[in-house]
Amino acid sequence: MTFSRIAIAGAGLGGLACARVLQLHGLDVTVFEQEPAPDARPQGGTLDMHADTGQVALRTAGLLDRFRTLARPEGQQMRGVDPHTGEVVLDEAPDGDSRPEIDRGQLRGLLLDSLSPGTVRWGQPIVEAAPGARVTFADGGSAEFDLVVGADGAWSRVRRALTGVLPEYSGVTFVEFGLDDADRRHPDLSARTGQGTLMTKADGKALIAQRTSTGHIRCYATFYAPEDWATELDFADAAAVRAHLLERYAGWHPDLLAYLREHDGGFAHRPLHVLPVPHAWTTTPGLTLLGDAAHLMPPLGVGANLALLDGAELATALATASTVEEAVRAYEAGMLPRSIEMAKACASGLHDLLSDDLRSMAA
């Protein structure tokens, strides 16, 4: 390969996996991240790493064994509960190591620790990219690279130079909340949740609870709603949000509404946005995308896996092709059809998530 400088916008899972594999091949890469530090914000809940995508990427990155020391095969447990009776109607035991769970923060830390010191430039986001691999930073400075990789998520700045397409509201919203130290402080809810994920749903609404490695239970109230549904609701007022949600879920079993009543913190509004399907582009000199920047889709267990695989495959192509353009063409030729197929499946799965069928556990 006759080039040396690669810039990655975004220190999410896909960007970090790409950087790791590039460094394994001796290539020069810098990751530019808008957050000021690795622990600037919570990293979310748990992820199931699939054997044919996420685990493949971790193996390529030389991190699969370390991943296995952190992963929780027991976290694959899936429990479905009738929302009106509280009865457990589905309780799927873990299936070996095919999709073990890991906290997103743990996985990100594993990737960060694998990189050479100074690889990530914290607090230095790329705010604009242009064909020819020229970027502009938030401080007004600019630089040129051999390739700029947009791994900068749903609202990608790099995507603007390739397609200009923005995510659209899906019609579904998530309200996130949680239970800290659940085993000690909320033993009944801890036992009800099990070792993995609990879901209950009916009438276009769902409640989801996920156990993390720390004993925290991360919960999501999920429902169809207009994009402006929360305009008059102050999310800084936890009591008002709780009252609204309890009214919205009125008639559900008290044991399930206890997740809302016993919640001991704030609520976060997370409207679900997606990119249109298909989302594709013509190969452009010096630019490409991976992960949510390329194929933002409903969070049904595939997004992080695809981002990791994207990053590993792009880095491998760059390490083995004779030119940047050849590498990017090869990568996009595999990534785009795969992501389009998965985005179609996730669009259908989103409706399953909010169906009345407790056996269609799409989350």
Q: Can you give a write-up of this model?
A:
Keywords: Cytoplasm, FAD, Flavoprotein, Monooxygenase, NADP, Nucleotide-binding, Oxidoreductase. An FAD-requiring monooxygenase active on some tetracycline antibiotic derivatives, which leads to their inactivation. Hydroxylates carbon 11a of tetracycline and some analogs. It is an enzyme of class 1 (oxidoreductase). There is one protein chain. With 363 residues, the chain is of the alpha/beta class. It has two domains: 5-72 and 98-167 and 275-353, FAD/NAD(P)-binding domain, CATH 3.50.50.60; 169-274, D-Amino Acid Oxidase, Chain A, domain 2. 34% of the residues lie in helices and 24% in strands. It contains twelve helices and 17 strands. The protein has helices at 13-24, 54-60, 64-70, 104-113, 159-162, 182-185, 187-193, 238-248, 254-261, 292-295, 303-320, 324-353; strands at residues 5-9, 28-33, 46-48, 78-81, 88-92, 101-103, 120-122, 126-130, 134-137, 142-144, 147-150, 168-179, 197-202, 205-211, 217-224, 268-274, 287-289. Strands 5-4-13-14-15-12-16 form a seven-stranded mixed sheet, with helices on one face. A five-stranded parallel sheet has the order 7-2-1-11-17. A hairpin with a 3-residue loop joins β8 and β9 (134-137). α1 (13-24) packs parallel to α4 and α11 (303-320) runs antiparallel to α12. The longest helix has 30 residues, at 324-353. The protein starts with a strand and ends in a 10-residue tail after the last helix. The model has no long low-confidence stretch (mean pLDDT 94).
